[in-house]
Sequence to fold (371 residues):
Amino acid sequence: MYSRIDDYVRHLVKESTPERSVWNVEKLRQGKSSDWNYIDGCMITALLEMSRITGDKSYFDFCESYISHFVREDGSILTYKPEKFNLDDINEGRTLFELYEHTGKDKYRLAAELLHRQLETQPRTFEGSFWHKAIYPDQVWLDGIYMAQPFYVKYEKYLGRRDYSDTEKQILTVRDRMRDGKTGLYFHGYDASRTAFWANRTTGCSENFWLRSIGWFAVALADILDEAYIPSVHEVFSDLMESVWRFSDPDTGLYWQVVNFPGRQGNYLETSGSAMLSYAMMKGARLGLLKKEYAAKGRKTFDGIVNKYLAFSETGLELGGICLVAGLGPENNRRRDGSYEYYISEPVVSNDAKGAAPFVLAYTEVKRLQA
Fold:
């Protein structure tokens, strides 16, 4: 089956263009053209890693063509609206540094500067953490750490002053405010004002542990530490991996959509968050950030995904078990209340990049283990 994964990745590339990517199921369902968004950013990040690990330049060429479609010569970005202060829109920018390094095209540097200016003016909580979006005042989501902080660290490393103190402070604030002392797991969201309808009035946290949000956080920590070693962030990463592994399914190595309720009615083993944790564990072990045993733990999860959710279909391979989307609010969408019932009610789809991209990233770590 491993040999077919390369075919699966090549199929995703072959069938996608900047205007319409087969991995962006949200856009396909809405009948909308692609824009500058985090979902495509996840996949382009994964494909750049495939280029590095395989030496196949066609992956890099596809990624460069894809991002170039949105980045104009003056560094402006097609469809990007900085006034939304949306951390999701920062994520795709992490690809710009590698493109700039390998092509020398100044537009990629200018685009990175543009995105960094958003972070310079991003609204913050009283504790100094970025708001997740302008429409989510005073809210910090685990997702947002992944969306913004790896870019932020890359910017500081390659274009800035190598000052990672802001990133470190924001991650430690997440640990202090959003980590559950009993389980070591992290709540999906935190409202510093304690006024959001989904927020606990005492802690400010949302009600449950959503798998993919923890996965986003884990991948962010692994990728940040790959760029810059920050001891306190390493401690957060090690503690999280140790805590979350206890909740893995003993048979498959996968994790549950609502992490701490294995087997509860409606709960299911979910692909995207499982792939993220698989990648983070294998990468963490490879970099010496985690004990060597975590390579085997991450590999078990990856193999569990392959065995349970990677299937043949009329169009080739299909990766199932992916939660399409989940969030908290806003005020006019009270269905998204962070309850157990909410998380298990969201659609489950196949081949969406929120699952396919971390699956591909985990696959590159498997390839490294086999090398």
Q: What stands out?
A: The domain at 2-370 is CATH 1.50.10.10 (Glycosyltransferase). The longest strand covers residues 310-313.
